[in-house]
Amino acid sequence: MQKTATLDKDIIPSDCGDCPIRHRAVCARCESDELHQLEEMKYYRSFEAGQTVIWSGDRMDFVASVVTGIATLTQTMEDGRRQIVGLLLPSDFVGRPGRDTAAYDITATTDLVMCCFRKKPFEEMMVSTPHIGQRLLEMTLDELDAAREWMLLLGRKTAREKIASLMAIIARRDATVSARTKAGRPVQIELPLTREAMAEYLGLTLETVSRQISALKRDGVIEMHGKRHVTIPDFDRLLEESGDDSDGGFLV
């Protein structure tokens, strides 16, 4: 595993109660005594954009929650071809209890902070604290639903809908988005992927990604500030462009 970056104390929560993902992560249902148990087995790791968190097949002696930042899950074929198979966003769980090695390459695409738990104590706590296991099961099922929706996106959506969908997925994971949209305020996001990585992830060419982003900008669906910063004036309109309705379901 590569050396981790220096931890920025300004973005590390002083305790679990101050954590920005507290109510969405695997520890969401923990009581104060259970949080204390987790405090004893946890530590933080920080990675700079572009750093590898772990390589597929490496021994993984921890599980973790993403606190801030975004990472990619990548699978490499025998002939060297690589495919991004998933994104890890804030509150997502990293690793699998009961599995000793990493199934995918994990790479930080932005500066990344993870709250890590030593695997063996965490697995023991899952047995003694059933609602941690229940919460992890819920998150796993949500991930399965997301994977099925992604199959639809890759197989049936147009290039324009794919780009809009990716932006909507990233925006929805920001806890402030719902409040902003209800207040009629624009939503702002930072794209975690380069256009080349977006093309790889969405099954498009680089030229198509650039062309569709330009079209969404020209039509007023998004505003671009530099290469990565996006303002979404009307989130419901972005959902319509993605093929989804305002409740998150797919339009038929």
How would you sum up the global shape? globular
Please name the CATH architecture of the largest domain: Sandwich
Taking the alpha carbons of the first and last residues, their distance comes to: 46 Å
Q: Uncertain spans, ≥5 residues at pLDDT below 50?
A: 248-252
CATH topology assignment of the largest domain: Jelly Rolls
What structural category arises from helix and sheet content?
alpha+beta
The CATH superfamily title of the largest domain: Jelly Rolls
Helix content: 25-40%
What's the SSE pattern?
HEEEEEEEEHHHHEHHEEH
Q: What does the largest sheet look like?
A: 4 strands, antiparallel
Give the C-alpha Rg: 19 Å
Count the beta strands: 11
Describe this protein's structure:
With 252 residues, the chain is of the alpha+beta class. Strand 10 and strand 11 form a beta hairpin. It is globular, with a radius of gyration of 19 Å. The protein has eight helices and eleven strands. It folds into two domains: 135 residues, Jelly Rolls (Sandwich), CATH 2.60.120.10; 86 residues, Arc Repressor Mutant, subunit A. The protein is 38% helix and 21% strand. The C terminus is likely disordered.
